[in-house]
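Customer escalation, tier 2.

The customer says the design service returned an amino acid string that "doesn't look like it belongs to this structure." They asked us to rerun it and document both sides in this ticket. The original structure tokens are below, unchanged.
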């Protein structure tokens, strides 16, 4: 933001009316007009971190977590905000992403780690996210959204109305859409500077972007090959073209190492920590509870199985299981609770689940279980819902099907009922599925990716996947003596 004669008055008005902050941004050196103090920013990040831990799985590899934290702390100590406490967390998901929340909370998905080739590239990802934190992008983005309120502050003195609006949803886009092209480029420049300050070559950021652009290219190929709509990629570095002139310029400004000054790459150290890491679905983390095979969901501990609509996917939380399509147009939620033996399924819905009115209500039985189902009528603020309960021993399984913004050509209630009526006790031992893991092998003069992929049995696109995680996409071969990742 450029200085104007109105800035002091604007800062004063904001400070008096809405407890806002107007200060010099530690990373950019320019004045910030923001609606949140640093202490509030840190507290908000802490609160969101605690909520996130309840909803997403964390990769349970303490050694790898400690390694990533050590790299992140090293880079953060060479940033513009070394005084705040940083937290680095590995999310146990196979998709490729990294993001930051306010106040120093930074996350990297396990899936992204498989595509990186060195500690320098890992540091590049973390440095970029640290750049978002040091430049206070979440807070600045929120202030920009509330610009109309800020501009109207001058009217406060005339109207005596001090309600500027509350600060909410600061984190809503960080993990999904990023911060916009200009803020992403700013994070690139800051990250490159932090890399250089930490002894890493800033060019590692360009290398990392190139690897991720290959993944985007493959996703387009796969969608076209399967006749599906290509899903937009919103992960880390998603806003960058492969040959981004502006990006190369801000990275070059960070500095270059002389021939006498060795730059840190640490491929071997990175390789040692990634060896044995889970690739794709982490079955071991969920096997004690669930097994998912195509569209069959089985819960080993609770002893039930059901079929859910294809191509819907299950999402587990601590209190429920939700099945929904990719576009989130509808959802079927399954909750489990204890029930009193003197309640019938009908009484359970009306008394315990607090369903006051139920249309098309009916009792039903299946696989030795008894249940009751019907439709809760729509209200002014809620659409109609298919609801059902099934008793299995002392447990009550409550289904709630909701259409949010459905396709008129799809009979959602039919899908809900089909899933409900597929619920049955799990009487056979679930087949244990082992997770695939990343391993390193050294290529020789006879190593060819296509031949290697045939031995690994990792799906229809095995060769493409092996090339992608080794930076060899679309058709390159490894050099003799080169360490390459395989999945088995």
């Amino acid at each position: 933001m450029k200085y104007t004669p109105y800035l002091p008055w604007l800062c004063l008005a904001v400070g008096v009316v809405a407890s806002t902050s107007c200060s010099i941004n530690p990373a950019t050196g320019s004045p910030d007009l923001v609606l949140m103090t640093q202490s509030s920013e840190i507290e908000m990040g802490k609160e969101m971190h605690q909520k996130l831990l309840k909803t997403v799985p964390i990769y349970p590899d303490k050694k790898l977590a400690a390694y990533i934290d050590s790299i992140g702390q090293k880079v953060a100590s060479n940033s513009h905000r070394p005084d705040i406490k940083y937290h680095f967390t590995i999310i146990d998901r196979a998709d490729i992403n990294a993001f930051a929340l306010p106040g120093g909370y930074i996350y990297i998905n396990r899936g992204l780690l498989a595509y990186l080739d060195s500690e320098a590239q890992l540091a590049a990802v973390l440095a970029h996210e640290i750049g978002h934190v040091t430049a206070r992008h979440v807070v600045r983005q929120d202030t920009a959204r509330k610009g109309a309120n800020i501009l109207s502050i001058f009217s406060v003195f005339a109207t005596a109305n001090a309600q500027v609006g509350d600060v909410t949803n600061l984190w809503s886009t960080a993990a999904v859409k990023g911060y916009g092209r200009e803020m992403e480029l700013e994070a690139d420049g800051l990250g490159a500077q932090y890399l250089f300050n930490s002894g890493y070559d800033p060019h590692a950021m360009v290398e990392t972007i190139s690897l991720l652009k290959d993944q985007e290219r493959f996703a387009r190929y796969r969608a076209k090959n399967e006749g599906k709509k290509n899903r937009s990629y919103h992960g880390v570095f998603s806003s960058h073209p492969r040959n981004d002139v502006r990006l190369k310029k801000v990275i070059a400004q960070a500095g270059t190492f002389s021939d006498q000054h060795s730059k840190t790459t640490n491929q071997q150290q990175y390789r040692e920590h990634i060896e044995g890491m889970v690739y794709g679905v982490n079955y071991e983390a969920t096997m004690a509870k669930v097994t998912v095979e195509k569209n069959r969901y089985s819960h080993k501990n609770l002893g039930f199985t059901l079929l859910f609509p294809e191509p819907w996917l299950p999402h587990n939380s601590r209190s429920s299981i939700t099945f929904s399509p990719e576009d989130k147009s509808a959802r079927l939620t399954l909750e489990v609770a204890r029930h009193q033996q003197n309640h019938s399924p009908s009484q359970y819905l009306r008394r315990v689940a607090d369903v006051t009115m139920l249309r098309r209500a009916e009792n039903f039985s299946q696989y030795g279980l008894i249940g009751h189902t019907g439709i809760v009528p729509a209200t002014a603020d809620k659409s109609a819902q298919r609801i059902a309960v099934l008793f299995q021993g002392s447990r009550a399984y409550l289904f709630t099907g909701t259409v949010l913004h459905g396709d008129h050509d799809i009979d959602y209630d039919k899908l809900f009922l089909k899933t409900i009526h597929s619920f049955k006790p799990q009487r056979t031992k679930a087949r244990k599925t082992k997770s695939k893991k990343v391993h390193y092998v050294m290529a020789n003069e006879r190593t060819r990716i296509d031949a290697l992929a045939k031995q690994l049995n990792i799906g229809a696109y095995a060769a493409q996947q092996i090339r992608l995680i080794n930076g060899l996409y679309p058709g390159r071969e490894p050099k003799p003596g080169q360490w390459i990742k395989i999945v088995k």
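Tier 2 assessment: The sequence is consistent with the input. The two ends are 52 Å apart (CA to CA). The chain has three domains: 7-252, 288-425, 433-487. Sent an explanation to the customer and offered a walkthrough call.
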